[in-house]
Amino acid sequence: MRLLLLAHGKFTGMGGKTARGVYFYSPHEVVGILDRSLAGHYADEFFPGRRHVPIYSRIEDFGDDFDALVIGVAPIGGKLPDAWRSEIRYALERGKTVISGLHDFLSEDIEFSRIAERTHARIWDVRKPPENLRVADGSARNANTVLVAGTDCSVGKMITAVELTMEARQRGINAGFVATGQTGIMVGADAGYVIDRIPGDFMAGAVEELVLEVSKTKEIIFVEGQSALTHPAYSGVTLAILHGSYAKRIVISHDPKRREHHHYPGFGIPPLERQMEMYETLASSVSGGKVVGIAIDGEHMSDGEYTRYVEKIEDEFSLPAVDVLREGPGRLLDAII
Amino acid sequence: MRLLLLAHGKFTGMGGKTARGVYFYSPHEVVGILDRSLAGHYADEFFPGRRHVPIYSRIEDFGDDFDALVIGVAPIGGKLPDAWRSEIRYALERGKTVISGLHDFLSEDIEFSRIAERTHARIWDVRKPPENLRVADGSARNANTVLVAGTDCSVGKMITAVELTMEARQRGINAGFVATGQTGIMVGADAGYVIDRIPGDFMAGAVEELVLEVSKTKEIIFVEGQSALTHPAYSGVTLAILHGSYAKRIVISHDPKRREHHHYPGFGIPPLERQMEMYETLASSVSGGKVVGIAIDGEHMSDGEYTRYVEKIEDEFSLPAVDVLREGPGRLLDAII
């Protein structure tokens, strides 16, 4: 499948997490990126060493040589801009698949669903919750799971989980990846639901179901966590995933430079040590999971800062601390297997 | 409004929580109870001192002298038994309101909705989530809220919150009650949603919205909590309510005889002290809430056991410990106001 990524205005910025995740990790070919603000450039100018993909201003400039259009960013204010609508129409009219992680389902848009029906195009709304929801019942409690949790949103949980899974596979380990968010699902998780879209009572049960399914064929499962236990808006999702995954081992993703929860000024992020205690305390009665490593989001650190920080916290906690994008996931995986 | 409660087989048992809650606390008149297993008795034979209400086998035995039929128990296996369907039909055919807390919405049942349309009967599906969901944004963080949390499901959180609200009002305090479950909503909360039915991302925001609304007219708000932070299936709902309520003060409901989570054998309930620590630790970065009292579910304790237990834990924690059904909520409220 040849993917075209819609990422207008955000491919390299904070809101471009999904587009970049697909660009970095999709097992499919990425043939083009739509971002008006970067048109004419190539993606690897911004992410050296990654795929060499041209960036276009409009879908018409790219043409028809793709199989699926991926909506890789969310529109500001939530409403689809007209320019995007016409690009989605362009894809559907040509029978192409449209993959969307938006809160509003494209398949429930009357115009889009009519076109798709006529052209047999497929609309995949990744956030759509599964039909058969159930509450957790403990049936996955013996699964061999590693949860990649974190101290805030956007600190690299999905990236760390994917990197650990790929590294494990390269070492010949039969590893699985369970996604709990849209990007993880889009980059080819073994199974996944967007857990934050599932009603509260069924969140842990949905994670348990994913873990059960993947554990049929995999010997170790990396589960993507969401948000943080201290996040004022999303902490419920975080805890449901901790409990529903029955994680025996926990990796904590952390951005040392972040003092407050992203978008939530005044809501501080407690020190890493406290967060590690919280995860272990809350895991204790359900899975007994322990923190086995720290995944650092070192994007905003110089090399010197990073090295000093790693030394300091490895010494403090006697656990490996690794930015998987900076030095690869090897040392972190060593602590897990 | 004159209420008729459907509670077949469970009015006095574990599954009758909603029916009993409405019987105990509804501001409306309860004119009859449907429970085949107890027909011919009066409700206050089982709950001395409470309302004197006759129990019937079938709705036809009761007749038409009511305004609303309340579905006060959930059917085993989730599917509506035929006998209940015919009783719901009976009510709707006569233009009566039907109030339901079932997971499956009666208003989406084709047969029921057609009858209701014809007779102008109202179907109120209490679990139905609100239309306009939003994420929490911190806007209720200065509200004066007391969360009645707990160490498991069914340990008296709703009862304690209602009793505290009523007692506060009797003392001339302008107190509000925010419900987070079906029974609380049915007994006349100032505002409420069934939070466990709301998608994960929006749970805390929904609680925040309720708190904001009620704080416009009330000086102190008692918020009903759900489940427990250590519950394997529902902990996400618990934490979303803790954070979304911005509770400054927390009351912990606890059944000292319970060792494992109800329906979850093998999932132990950590000691009360640990649970209190967990609530305070998780509240610390969002509301800074502190535990101010313990609400004991002493249903399965003798008077002697109860007295000794209260002495022991009041001494241990220097906090009031009160079974509000046994001795009234006065001492507990003293610790809050």
What does this structure look like?
2 copies of one chain form a homodimer. Chain A has 337 residues and is an alpha/beta fold. The first copy, chain A, folds into 2 domains: 2-125, 3-Layer(aba) Sandwich (Rossmann fold); 145-336, P-loop containing nucleotide triphosphate hydrolases (Rossmann fold, 3-Layer(aba) Sandwich). In chain A, 36% of the residues lie in helices and 17% in strands. Chain A has helices at residues 17-25, 43-46, 59-62, 82-93, 110-119, 157-170, 182-186, 200-215, 235-244, 272-284, 303-317, 324-327, 330-336; strands at 2-6, 29-34, 55-56, 68-71, 97-100, 123-125, 145-150, 175-179, 191-192, 220-224, 249-254, 290-296, 321-322. In chain A, the strands form 2 sheets. A 7-stranded parallel beta sheet of chain A has the order 9-8-10-7-11-12-13, with helices on both faces. A 6-stranded parallel beta sheet of chain A has the order 3-2-1-4-5-6, with helices on both faces. The longest helix of chain A has 16 residues, at 200-215. Chain A is globular and about 55 Å long. The model of chain A has no long low-confidence stretch (mean pLDDT 96). The A-B interface holds A 129, 135-138, 141, 195-201, 203-205, 229-240, 243-244, 264, 266-270, 274, 277-278, 281-282, 284-286 and B 129, 135-138, 141, 195-201, 203-205, 229-240, 243-244, 264, 266-270, 274, 277-278, 281-282, 284-286.
